[in-house]
Amino acid sequence: xxxxxxxxxxxxxxxxxxxxxxxxxxxxxxxxxxxxxxxxxxxxxxxxxxxxxxxxxxxxxxxxxxxxxxxxxxxxxxxxxxxxxxxxxxxxxxxxxxxxxxxxxxxxxxxxxxxxxxxxxxxxxxxxxxxxxxxxxxxxxxxxxxxxxxxxxxxxxxxxxxxxxxxxxxxxxxxxxxxxxxxxxxxxxxxxxxxxxxxxxxxxxxxxxxxxxxxxxxxxxxxxxxxxxxxxxxxxxxxxxxxxxxxxxxxxxxxxxxxxxxxxxxxxxxxxxxxxxxxxxxxxxxxxxxxxxxxxxxxxxxxxxxxxxxxxxxxxxxxxxxxxxxxxxxxxxxxxxxxxxxxxxxxxxxxxxxxxxxxxxxxxxxxxxxxxxxxxxxxxxxxxxxxxxxxxxxxxxxxxxxxxxxxxxxxxxxxxxxxxxxxxxxxxxxxxxxxxxxxxxxxxxxxxxxxxxxxxxxxxxxxxxxxxxxxxxxxxxxxxxxxxxxxxxxxxxxxxxxxxxxxxxxxxxxxxxxxxxxxxxxxxxxxxxxxxxxxxxxxxxxxxxxxxxxxxxxxxxxxxxxxxxxxxxxxxxxxxxxxxxxxxxxxxxxxxxxxxxxxxxxxxxxxxxxxxxxxxxxxxxxxxxxxxxxxxxxxxxxxx
Length: 640
Known about the structure:
The chain is 72% helix and 3% strand.
């Protein structure tokens, strides 16, 4: 399999072709079999490749499977090649197996949808594009997958194309991501110009060898981070992700929680040599990550759509990942990426199970008392809520604490690291609060929906609850992947990722966190998480919606501001969208009208000249002879 890595993305791409071409006519049984087998084949082939890689490269060296030379000109070029190393191994396992579980879940969730074949064709295509992104051996080939997942995101967000909101959300996601992608493209142009290659290993080696001005490396890193801000929904390009909830819920779980939105974190971890040589760019990444984590968490405090709460939670947790890679703790950022894939996929799929039981209802004000009606959904949702809140011994507890401890101990910019730690700690409090607010308003108290909704309440089928339980268990025990060194000295995710962070002259290698400091940060984080849970429990477990009504009475302006997402969309509309629309109208009605007028005038002149010359084209040979004779006379008179 190490020399057949191209088969891994090929299998879901084949599923896309089969379902796209024949699925509508072949029926749901055919579509289901093709989609599930294609995603399972990718997972099994990926696992086989990982096992062979582990046996062949115990030291974590890079394995490259060259398919063919893409282009070569003027001393630069790029290959169509796939690679395996410790980082791509982790991403491969997360993407394929979580993707497979979500494919299985989708069979039950999407069974009654009219576009069933189209949905699974898009989902298979997304999986293929994501696999190209994480297995590509160069920035240029990764960009192919990068754009592919962007296309699939647009298609799946706008899946309900007969509505107004879904296509609008899809276009918003597509446009915002193009802004970030422009930065990524310019970064690659600079790599070609100053490093002569876009191959991952080549870029790292030439940058580490010196000779490239620090300002160029900083520019490359900042431009790549702009691309990451678009794909991974960071300030100021995060606005597309909450609107992306217009797509089917399994899409939110796969694309907008577990895989695509983590592509920016993966790219920065992959480019760690460049960022360590450009610490100013790393500082920007850490600060933006900290601000995003807190800002998005505050918006989640007062959202009513169950998926919107989880969407802003995703933006916030992505901020934690960027804090990790931004302070130089690349393994910590990737660790939180993995644990987040477990508990956020479980939460999104759990919300889909709730929506399924509620006959499409998504407003938590119309829910309540569901824990006895859909007990399996409640239990798995509660486990994932515990994990994301960072409470002791669950997956989020270990990964989030490692990120925050690394921010406190970073050697790159200690003062900024302390500030980022504070932002992350406040965001952790908000996370515990809004997640338990969501849990209590959805599953506790009395049912607040209609009698018809209550009559139709039912637990989801096994195709939906099975993946929920697998993800819930991983959410509970996922922290065992990378225990702190003071507790466990054996193999861990951090030691597995060590080969991708090579020693580079002039750059720090790893962050050393004293055990006492790590325990202090863990205690503070635990107190903050418990406090967030306790406040949410006091306000919502018994009082339910009365607590939010009280906030509206005491601070109506604050309540409206949070509910309206701090008016960021309105600000963008006023400062960017409407001015651009006005400028477009000016060019359309003003400049375009002038151009049309000039074109019309030129057309009139040409037509008039043609009408005049038409009188000389009579078709009579004697007239032509006369004109020829007169021309000769005039010529002789003028020159002789």
